[in-house]
Every structure is written in C-alpha cells, then in structure tokens.
Amino acid sequence: MHIATIDYTHPEAGAAFAQSLRETGFAVIINHPLDWSLIQSIYTEWLTFFKSEYKNNYRVRPEQKGGFFPTDLSETAKGETVKDLKEFFHIFPSGVFPSELSALSLNYYQQAFGLAKHLLQWIQEFTPEHIRAAYSEPLPSMIEGAEGLLRVLRYTPVATDQDYVRAAAHEDINLITILPAATAPGLQVKNAAGEWYDVPVEPNSLVINIGDMLQEASQFFYPSTTHRVVKFKDQDAQQERISMPFFLQPRGDVVLSSRYTAGEYHAERMRELKVIQDGKILL
C-alpha cells in the first residue's frame, strides 16, 4: 500500500493530493504552512498537563463543550469491547480550556482550520464532475458556521515488550483529519487484503486522511480507511506518545446523502463509540 508524499508547494500538489486520497484514503504532506516549532511546544505543554493533578479539574461534563477525557472515558472502537489506552482533551474555540496553559494550542487551531479549508478546496476542485454533482453543496460551504475539533492525546506507557495496540482499528467520523507527526511512531493503515502498513511519517510532516462523512458524501469515491495506533515491541515500554489530530467537521444540518445529515451520522457514531455519560453524548 503506497501512501503518496505530497510537496504542498508543488504546482500539481492539489491533483496529486486528491489522487492519493482516492487510492488510499491517506496522504502525507511536506513543506506545509503549519509551524513545526509551535507544534513541538504544544506537545511539551500538554505532556505536563497530562502528568498533572489539575487535569482532573477539567474532566468533561455533559453540559460543557470540550474538556478532559481520562482513560475511563476513552473511546471503544466500533466492534470492539475494550477501551483504547489513552487520555485526551477536546479543544473548541467556544469550549473549556485549561487556564494553566498558554494560547499556543488555540493559535494552532486557527492555523490548522485554515489549512484544512484549503485542502478541502483541493478535494472539491479535483473530484470528478459526476461525483461532485452529488454533493448537496460544495465541500467548502459545508464547514461554514461549523467548528473543527482539535484533540490532544496522550497514549500512556505500556508495560509490555511485545507489540501492543494502543488505539484499536477504526475509521474517523469527520470530513478530513490533519495529523502532525506524533512524538513516537505507531500509526498503521489497513489495505483491502487486511494487511497493516506503517504510515511513513517524518518530523514536520502531516498525515491527512478521509473521514466517514466525506466517504458518505462522495458516494464512497473517497475511502475512509481503517487505521490504528500500535506500540512496537522494540519501543521503550515506558515511552509515551503525544498526538494532535485536527478533525474538520461540517455543520450538523449538512446533507451527506439520502441516508444521513451530518448531525444524524455523528449521533449514530457516538452511540457506537460508547462515550456516553448520564445519557448524554460527550464527544
């Protein structure tokens, strides 16, 4: 399975990007406009947060937007019974945010949202006309008035010298995901034959992948590819992994297909992920 590496500054980058997404659901982008030193500083800040006691002051509640999800509130991938071994924080511009942290993450949110809009425009432009005609509205207009989700994750140390699945096989829910290189390797994708491949990630690169909502809107032209996160047996058992995906989401009223609006699809997937407290969906 070959995931293309795209130079963001190349004149043919948009076409190559869309082609890679069509073939694999994934692409790796280099020479992009996101600030790598900013990303590294954010990783350092959040590692301190996750190791603190004050993180529990921000434990997510049904009445609030965003917040801290400890391991006991972590997701259970569709079809799985065991929760992923991770803790994370959801960041929205209108949501809760730790007063102990700087504004670096919020600054990055704006950068990532701007890049995501541009990548979505590339997908719109290089989608074949017969597929594009089925969109209920142009892809860039689907995110007008919507908030993206910035998730900062800490995959906790694993006390084993064997390969270990940190995040079970799953597909993303949203339109597209932007994922900067994490602090440790481990991202894998599955091909049609069921074989797992490591995603080639170098420092200062971005992994982009299609989510279920864009798969649905494109009538499965763009595949939402199954992926997972593993700890390899030759990695230090105590090595943590900080990761920061940005999920670009449409408005809830956007019609994805004759089967779903974005809001309906999101609610269905949240029930499958079992992230529910007091009868309310937390994600």
From TrEMBL:
Superkingdom of this protein's organism: Bacteria
Reactions that this protein is recorded to catalyse: 2-oxoglutarate + O2 + 2 H(+) = ethene + 3 CO2 + H2O; L-arginine + 2-oxoglutarate + O2 = guanidine + L-glutamate 5-semialdehyde + succinate + CO2
EC number: 1.13.12.19, 1.14.20.7
Names of required cofactors: Fe(2+)
InterPro entries the UniProt entry points to: DIOX_N, IPNS-like_FE2OG_OXY, IPNS-like_sf, Iron_ascorbate_oxido_reductase, Oxoglu/Fe-dep_dioxygenase_dom
A GO BP entry: ethylene biosynthetic process
SUPFAM superfamilies for this protein: Clavaminate synthase-like (SSF51197)
Pathway the protein acts in: Alkene biosynthesis; ethylene biosynthesis via 2-oxoglutarate
MF-aspect GO terms: 2-oxoglutarate oxygenase/decarboxylase (ethylene-forming) activity; metal ion binding
Keywords per UniProt: Ethylene biosynthesis, Iron, Metal-binding, Oxidoreductase
Family to which the UniProt record says this protein belongs: Belongs to the iron/ascorbate-dependent oxidoreductase family.
PANTHER family reported in the protein's UniProt record: 2-OXOGLUTARATE (2OG) AND FE(II)-DEPENDENT OXYGENASE SUPERFAMILY PROTEIN-RELATED
Name of the protein: 2-oxoglutarate-dependent ethylene/succinate-forming enzyme
UniProt source species: Acinetobacter soli
Upper classification of the organism: Bacteria, Pseudomonadati, Pseudomonadota, Gammaproteobacteria, Moraxellales
